[in-house]
């Protein structure tokens, strides 16, 4: 049975993910997946993993990216802490953008894996596959030759 997600959102009280999807016949349905035992201090990654691995929810969440599920869980958790939705969305947007000048070598493993997931998601979103509009099988590009110089090239070689 193929599920085509249309929208995924949250319900604050009691906490739940709400998924709107089309089933294999094309009918629109809504599924509410309660998040039991979720608190202000719960681990978001662990909760997302348990939701995705739950046999009752697996087929509904398999086409939703893990970063999106974690983002929705974070919105619920920040709401539990009393932080406004606008503040939470602003903070999440800042965390989910890739700064080209950021040195990813200085990040810990968890932050690095989060940044990689964001880059993978952006890549898949922008990727052109066969059958997509504007897809070209073989693209040839001629680049102008770039001449790079460096300081060590300027000096003559010492005599040996």
Automatic annotation (TrEMBL):
Key words of the record: Cell projection, Cilium, Cilium biogenesis/degradation, Cytoplasm, Cytoskeleton
Q: Which domain of life is it from?
A: Eukaryota
Q: Read off the InterPro entries from this record.
A: CEP19
Q: Where is it localised?
A: Cytoplasm, Cytoskeleton, Cilium basal body; Cytoplasm, Cytoskeleton, Microtubule organizing center, Centrosome, Centriole; Cytoplasm, Cytoskeleton, Spindle
The entry sums up its family as follows: Belongs to the CEP19 family.
**What name has this protein been given in UniProt?**
Centrosomal protein of 19 kDa
């Amino acid at each position: 049975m193929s599920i085509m997600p249309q929208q995924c959102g949250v319900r604050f009280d009691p906490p739940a993910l709400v998924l709107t999807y089309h089933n294999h016949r094309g009918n629109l349905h809504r599924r509410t997946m309660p998040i039991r035992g979720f608190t202000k201090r719960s681990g978001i990654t662990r909760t997302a993993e348990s939701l995705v691995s739950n046999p009752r929810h697996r087929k509904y969440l398999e086409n939703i990216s893990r970063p999106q599920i974690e983002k929705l869980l974070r919105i619920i958790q920040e709401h539990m802490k009393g932080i406004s939705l606008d503040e939470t969305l602003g903070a999440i947007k800042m965390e989910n953008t890739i700064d080209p000048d950021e040195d990813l070598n200085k990040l810990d493993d968890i932050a690095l894996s989060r940044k990689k997931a964001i880059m993978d998601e952006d890549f898949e979103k922008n990727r052109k596959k066969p059958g997509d509009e504007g897809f070209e099988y073989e693209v040839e590009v001629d680049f102008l030759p770039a001449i790079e110089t460096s300081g060590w090239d300027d000096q003559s070689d010492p005599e040996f």
